[in-house]
Amino acid sequence: MKGLSKPFPASKIHFRVGATDKDKTKGLALAYIDARDVMERLDEVIGAERWQCEYPFVGCCRIGIKVGEEWVWKSNGAGQTDVEGDKGQYSDSFKRAAVLWGIGRYLYDLGNMWVKIKPQGRSHAIAETPRLPSWAIPDGFDEKPKAQDQDPFNGKKDELISLCEQTDSDFQRVESWIMAVTRLVGFDDAPQINLTELKKETA
């Protein structure tokens, strides 16, 4: 069943807007896949006759896969969506149950991807599609870096250090780091930290 966890082609990955900056010019791109693609993956890897799903109650889906002569079940749930209501709830709970079998789980490892957004009705839409890392496409999945090998500063650690190394106290250094990270990431709202209390602790 290893094939269940393989990434989908980039064309199958969709994005919706999560959190936004205060100017509503950038947003967090949240990746997702369609329920139909999950079904096709199960058919392809497991076989259409060796998997099934059911909804024991509203908001919960469980997917069963026949392993040998036994059925193994995994379940998960979801709330109603703002867009599709009950239909979206059934679809989301199905996809979340599929994640427990490894389908699309790698999408949770993409991290925060801030991109340009544009108005769309009463909400916003992605204006530029994020570029997926090599390990998140079928050909490069086996090259996925370990967590300790990933760079949380996206290659800008040296620049961050240079922006902060001139400070005279721990408090000023912390404050500089907050503002530097904020500026480099392009997110206007700095973390909500009580700097007055922090100053007392670092004095």
3D architecture notes:
The chain is of the alpha+beta class. The chain folds into two domains: 10-142, Enolase-like, domain 1; 157-202, no CATH class. It has five helices and seven strands. The strands form two sheets. Strands 1-2-6-7 form a four-stranded antiparallel sheet, with no helix packed on it. Strands 3-4-5 form a three-stranded antiparallel sheet, with helices on one face. β3 (51-57) and β4 (60-67) form a beta hairpin. It is globular.
Question: Can you give keywords for this protein?
Answer:
203 residues, alpha+beta, Enolase-like, domain 1, 2 domains, 4-stranded antiparallel sheet, 5 helices, globular
Instruction: Give the class from helix and strand content and strand pairing.
Output: alpha+beta
Q: What characterizes the major β-sheet?
A: 4 strands, antiparallel
How much of the sequence lies in strands comes to: 15-25%
- Please write the string of helix (H) and strand (E) elements: EEHEEEHEEHHH
* Rg value: 22 Å
Give the CATH topology of the largest domain. Enolase-like, domain 1
Q: Which segments are poorly predicted (pLDDT under 50) over 5 or more consecutive residues?
A: 145-149, 183-199
Number of helices: 5
Indicate how many domains the architecture comprises: 2
Mean pLDDT: 78
| CATH domain class name of the largest domain | Alpha Beta
What is the CA–CA distance across the termini? 56 Å
Strand order of the largest sheet: 1-2-6-7
> Shape from CA axes?
globular
Helix % is 25-40%
